[in-house]
Specification:
The chain contains nine helices and eight strands. With 218 residues, it is α/β, with parallel strands linked by helices. Strands 5-4-1-6-7-8 form a six-stranded parallel β-sheet, sandwiched between helices. A two-stranded antiparallel sheet has the order 2-3. Helix 7 links the parallel strand 6 and strand 7. The model has no long low-confidence stretch (mean pLDDT 96).
Length: 218
Amino acid sequence: MYRYLFFDLDGTLTDPKEGITNSVAYALDSYGIHAELEELIPFIGPPLHESFMQFYGFDREKAMEAVGKYREYFADRGIWENALLPGVPELLAELKARDRAIALATSKPEVFARQILEHFKIADCFDAVCGSCLDGSRTKKAEVIETAHARLEQALGTPVPLESCVMIGDRLHDIEGARGAGMDSIGLTFGYGGVQELKQAGATYRADSFAQLLKIIG
C-alpha cells in the first residue's frame, strides 16, 4: 500500500495537447519553422528546452530562447487550452477519502501548474505542489520529485518514508525521475508515453485506467 502519492500533471491529470502544441508551433514560427500540430505531441511531458534541442537541433541557448517564445503564447492562451482527464475529480476525492497524502510533481513551471489546479478547482486536493522554475532551473524530474517530497514532509510535519511513496505519470521522465528520487513508479498507459515507453523505462507498475491505479495503490 502506498500512503504518499506524487502525480505528474500533463497527460496524467490533464490533457494539455491543444495548448502545448499551439504554444510550440508559435515558438517555432518565430524561427521560420512550420510544423503540423500532431508532430509536436512529443513535446508533452519532457522539459521544453530538452525537446527543442532533441527534435529541432537547437543548442541550449537557442532552446531556452525558444522556451521564452513558447511562454508568450502559453501564459496568455495556451494555459487555458487544456482539460481535466475524465474521472480525475472522482479519483482525487477517493484518494483523499482513503486518507492518502497527495503531491504534484511536474516539469511544468510551478506558477502555471498552480494556476491550472486552481482553474480546475482541484488545488485543495494537494498537500504539496512542486514544478520547475521560470529561470530554467529544477527541470530534471528527479529534482522536482525530491523537492515535492521535502515540501510534503514540511506540510505534514512528519517524515515521509520513500518506501511508502509512489510517482504516478505517463512518460519515461516520470519513471526515471522516480527512480532517481528513490521511489517506486506507476506508469499510466493512456497518457502520452504509451505502454512500450513505460515498459522500457522500467515502471514498477503500469495501469490502463484510474480504476486499475486505485487497485495498485491499495
